[in-house]
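Researcher: I'd like a candidate sequence for this fold, 328 residues long. If you have to choose between options at a position, lean toward the conservative one.
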């Protein structure tokens, strides 16, 4: 066919090339299916055939993954998927997957181009917002960066917060002491911490005050200096609460605010503080907004399809009732 293109690659290290290709060339098959190309491997040599676009993307994927292997990092099905997502994104570069976040238990790399931009923004900006659906890694990656900075000594403490909106922040009627009252709301943050650090270290750090997990109501009146501060589920803050929280930011600190504006649980007629902040702070120096979409969902593939289905349903509802806004 006239539009058929071919490219040849040779990898210097034959042993690493075999790891790159995968057992029985399963990794190459994964790339072939995703990009509609044909890849033939002989020893450390590869021939890629297909459309010009597909061949170019396959080259980028293979070279980025080979570079990853040369650095001693792992290459498996998940890493192939990440590289394919990135070459299909706006930058068409798989190189961003070689960004790494080092925690006590694992090394974490972005799996989409948006995740890569998000991690870069956290390094460069004092205040970063991450908007988007469940499963896009916005909270998980923020906790990873927080742990990395704490372990490295860049900050003295991590502060993780969430609004306990289901209880209206009126926690007194719940059974147990304060920790038992708020733990159910903060459990996802605990889970992320335990994924980054050994359990005994999490406990010790919390007892020492190096890691604090607290409901949003506990932030009032504080100045959070030398800290990495994360506010999760921020769509459930009011405008007043959001302003209060953002103005806690102190010297030598980073703040990350995450949330999903499609899942606001505030009383009807109450405007989300996250929506308010996005409009008010747009263009403010030192503030960065990252917008995740269904394409950034990195959980089970069915989660991506669920998010897409709900997005379509929401778009239909907005089209039929354009003047109705749940949180306005």
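Model: Candidate sequence:
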């Amino acid at each position: 066919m006239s539009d058929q293109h071919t490219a040849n690659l040779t990898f210097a290290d034959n042993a690493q090339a075999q790891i790159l290709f995968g057992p029985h060339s399963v990794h190459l098959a994964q790339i072939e299916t995703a990009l509609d190309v044909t890849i033939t491997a002989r020893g450390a040599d590869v021939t890629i055939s297909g459309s010009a676009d597909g061949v170019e993307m396959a080259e980028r994927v293979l070279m980025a993954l080979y570079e990853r292997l040369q650095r001693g990092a792992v290459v498996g099905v998940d890493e192939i998927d990440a590289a394919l997502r990135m070459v299909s994104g706006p930058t068409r570069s798989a190189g961003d997957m070689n960004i790494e976040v080092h925690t006590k238990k694992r090394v974490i790399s972005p799996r989409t181009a948006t995740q890569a931009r998000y991690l870069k923004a956290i390094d460069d900006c004092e205040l970063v917002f991450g908007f988007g659906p469940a499963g896009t890694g916005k909270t998980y990656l923020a906790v990873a960066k927080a742990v990395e900075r704490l372990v490295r000594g860049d900050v003295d403490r991590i502060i993780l917060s969430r609004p306990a909106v289901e209880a209206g922040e009126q926690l007194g009627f719940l059974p147990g002491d304060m920790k038992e009252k708020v733990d159910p709301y903060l459990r996802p943050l605990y889970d992320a911490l335990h994924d980054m650090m050994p359990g005994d270290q999490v406990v010790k750090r919390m007892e020492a005050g190096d890691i604090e997990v607290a409901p949003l109501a506990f932030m009032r009146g504080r100045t959070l200096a030398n800290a990495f501060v994360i506010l999760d589920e921020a769509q459930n803050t009011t405008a007043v609460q959001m302003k209060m929280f953002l103005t806690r930011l102190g010297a030598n600190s980073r703040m990350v605010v995450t949330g999903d504006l499609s899942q606001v649980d505030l009383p009807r007629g109450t405007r989300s503080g996250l929506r308010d902040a996005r409009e008010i702070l747009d263009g403010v120096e030192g503030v960065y907004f990252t917008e995740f979409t269904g394409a950034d969902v990195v959980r089970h593939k069915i989660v991506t399809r669920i998010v897409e289905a709900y997005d379509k349903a929401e778009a239909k509802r907005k089209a039929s009732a354009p003047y109705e806004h749940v949180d306005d």
